[in-house]
Amino acid sequence: MDITTMRIVATLASFACFLGIWFWAWRRSNQARFDEAAQLPFAED
Q1: CA 42, 36, 24, 28: dihedral to nearest 10 degrees?
Q2: How far is CA 14 from the centre of its chain?
Q3: What angle do CA 42, 43, 45 make, to 5 degrees?
Q4: I need a labelling partner for 39 at 20 to 30 A (CA). Which of 6, 8, 13, 18 fits?
Q5: What are the structural domain ranges in the chain?
Q6: Distance between CA atoms of 30 and 22, rounded to whole angstroms?
Q7: Where, by residue number, does the polypeptide cross the bilayer (predicted)?
């Protein structure tokens, strides 16, 4: 395995992680949690 093959594998693994995070962030089941977290700076103690 040469350096080019390792770079290709690393790029594909990074892209797969990016797609996984993107899919997780845009799921409807997470929307309520993200909306609540977005309002935290405005909450009064």
Answers
A1: -130
A2: 11
A3: 135
A4: 18
A5: 3-42
A6: 12
A7: 6-25
The residue whose two tokens read 């935290």 is: 40
* Count helices and strands in the chain by DSSP H and E runs: 2, 0
Give one DSSP letter per residue of 18-36, joined into a string. HHHHHHHHT-GGGHHHHHH
Token match 């990016």: residue?
18
The DSSP secondary-structure symbol of 39 reads T
Chain segment 1-37, per-residue pLDDT in tens = 899 999 999 999 999 999 999 999 888 888 888 899 9
Read off the tokens for 17. Answer: 């992680």
